[in-house]
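tool_call: predict_structure(chain=1)
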Amino acid sequence: MAAATLRAQLNRFRPQLGDLVTSIVVAVYLLLFLNATFWSKAGLYLKNDPSAYAALWVAIFALFAIGTVAVSIKYIIKPVLILYIAVATAAAWFTDTYGVFVDTDMVRNAFETTKAETQDLLTPGLIKHFALYFFLPTAFLTWIRIVHQPFGRKIRQNVITIFVCLIVFVSLGAAFYKPYSAVVRTKRDLIKTLNPITPLVSTTKYILGASQEIIISVKPVGGDAKIDARADGSTKPRVAIIVVGETARAANFSLDSYARETNPELARQDVIYFSNVSSCGTATDVSLPCMFSNLKRSGYDHKTGLENENVLDVLVRAGVDVTWMENNTGSKGVADRVRNVIITGSSDSRFCKDGDCKDEIFLEKIDEWLNGITKDSVLVLHQLGNHGPAYYERYPDAFRKFIPDCRTTELSRCKDAEIVNAYDNAILYTDFILSKIVERLKARTVTLSTGFLYVSDHGESLGENNLYLHGTPYFMAPDEQTRVPLIAWFDRQFASSMGLNLDCLKKSATMPLSHDNLFSSLLGMMNVTTKAYERDLDMYAACRRALAALPGS
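tool_result:
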């Protein structure tokens, strides 16, 4: 009885707002407080037309009001408005802080991420941001009492309000069609920063797509695949280790003429560095499955990628033994049908902490794998590499060559130079790992023919043009996110078994390449013939005696 009396007394102090007023207030809040990047870009793109810029404020307010008024129904209004604020708050943090756009690919990354990766992003700054922009306004929204009109009057009120807002939105769009259409066509990044509309639409697309993926049937590729005769008649098992790098950009490799010495070990290994290579995407979820498929960047989308086998399937069908070792966030479907060794989350305290394992853990696993080779084999290593923003967690203290290095996941607390230092230290550590892998292959040349290929999935922005991390839509992504390192090494026996002239390959290392080349190049490396193979995309083809005259030889 006393509790009921207390609740009644407290309720007397709860402010009351009408349902329409509440909807308008939330629309204004979203407009003013959670769209800083959108208004910054709009101001820049419409700086020569202040009238269009001012009208855009009114038009977007009308659009937001439509979205909030449409849900002003008893028992629904509060949960939905809180959802709007939550989505906009989260998207605003990543867009305003890192320049990341919450499109469908980014939503997929969020759903498929690991616990460790999530923890890297839970920074004090993010918590403060949510406390200020989510918890305070939603606490107020939860506290107030929303007064609803009688049902008939509510319907009339909402319909009229939505109709008026729609007229305003359409009228302003028509009045300023020329500047708006020009911006939308040439500056497509603007719409991708509009919160919460873009992340809600992106999430809806992801969920609808994920529901369709459940019934996907995988189509075979390269049904006629077989291992062809070796060019030199050798009989030793041929083994290739393929390393998929994570977030390594070519611009920070000293093999790529970067001023800092970030590849001292590889420089001593007689590797071949390809300096003009572009990625299929700007995020792992796109680049990883795309690079192993035969769809090419122009024909790749997530659903089509899942519907088709990839080059690993073709290698297995031909008779090559294939193993995938995972130290990242998963193979994104690439290794679903091959032997899969999961290292992520290992309890090995020498290399692992809180679910993340430094890539040095691969080295012992490689030794074990090499000991068991009896036939032509491929091992794919998926690195943790330079995965940000916790660059400082990707290398041991022995590799803190470039200091001061950013020692936090909250990049806004570090100078750009400190972020670059941490990133370069992680590249230096990758250089060490890759060099050790090559050394292990060199040590096996008595019993095995050995080859090595390294390629990163995408690059990274480190503050250039106020962009950080990766995932920028490809059409506007900077070179830092799309130009990636590619490195090859072969012992003489492996090269001769595929008819490859290494001197020729070194001379052609500046040729333009992309992830599109990986499918046919891996088949060429392992002497696999199939109708799915495309000679023009085999990066080794021009330097193989069995296929063409050797330029420059």
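agent: Confidence is low (pLDDT under 50) at residues 546-553. Proceeding to next step.
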